[in-house]
């Protein structure tokens, strides 16, 4: 009846949520201010971090963070008032999205959002109403975040100390 959740350090998750709430996405890029959009933004940020810190030594730590992120997303879905069936279906869909994004980004060693804007259009603009200028701005943001993450210390990442400022 009552689910028990393992306690985790939520600092990175909270930082990812903060990054996904940046007004830039909703005011300048006209992304839909919806739960799904925010979750997909969290996914993109997290995948970039995972890719930049890919190392066998941190595999268990990042698995724990992955579990924590999905646990927090599930809790948030339940707080929206969804029942068990809807929560399970939504989580299954979000898992598919996460793994699709990570697979597409990891297919190439040096993935560039600027030259692969189709992935941005797929997840943020549903491949319609494509505004090239907005897509390019989002690609630039993701590229800058990716470059920023390569210089981050893993301990700073784990503590949510990601002070990324776009522009």
Structure notes:
- 65% of the residues lie in helices and 0% in strands.
- It has helices spanning 11-20, 23-28, 35-52, 59-79, 84-106, 118-124, 132-150, 154-158.
- The mean pLDDT is 86.
- The radius of gyration is 16 Å and the shape is globular.
- It has one domain.
- With 167 residues, the chain is mainly alpha-helical.
* Main sheet overview: none
Low-pLDDT stretches are: none
Q: What Rg, in angstroms, do the CA atoms define?
A: 16 Å
The structural class is mainly alpha
Average the pLDDT over all residues and give the rounded result: 86
Helix content: 55-70%
The tally of helices reads 8
Strand-residue proportion: under 5%
Features:
167 residues; mainly alpha
Describe what is shown at a glance.
With 167 residues, the chain is mostly helical.
Please describe the topology of this protein.
Elements: H1 11-20, H2 23-28, H3 35-52, H4 59-79, H5 84-106, H6 118-124, H7 132-150, H8 154-158
């Amino acid at each position: 009846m009552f689910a028990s959740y393992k306690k985790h350090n939520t600092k990175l998750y909270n930082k990812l949520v903060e990054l996904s709430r940046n007004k830039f996405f909703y005011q300048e890029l006209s992304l839909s201010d919806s739960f799904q959009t925010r979750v997909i933004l969290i996914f993109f940020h997290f995948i970039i971090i995972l890719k930049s810190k890919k190392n066998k030594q941190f595999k268990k730590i990042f698995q724990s963070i992955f579990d924590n992120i999905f646990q927090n997303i599930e809790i948030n879905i339940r707080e929206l008032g969804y029942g068990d069936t809807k929560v399970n279906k939504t989580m299954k869909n979000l898992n598919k999205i996460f793994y699709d994004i990570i697979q597409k980004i990891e297919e190439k060693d040096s993935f560039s959002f600027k030259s692969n804007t189709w992935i941005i259009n797929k997840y943020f603009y549903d491949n319609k109403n494509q505004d090239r200028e907005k897509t390019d701005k989002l690609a630039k943001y993701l590229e800058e975040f990716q470059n920023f993450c390569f210089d981050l210390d893993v301990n700073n990442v784990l503590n949510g100390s990601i002070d990324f400022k776009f522009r």
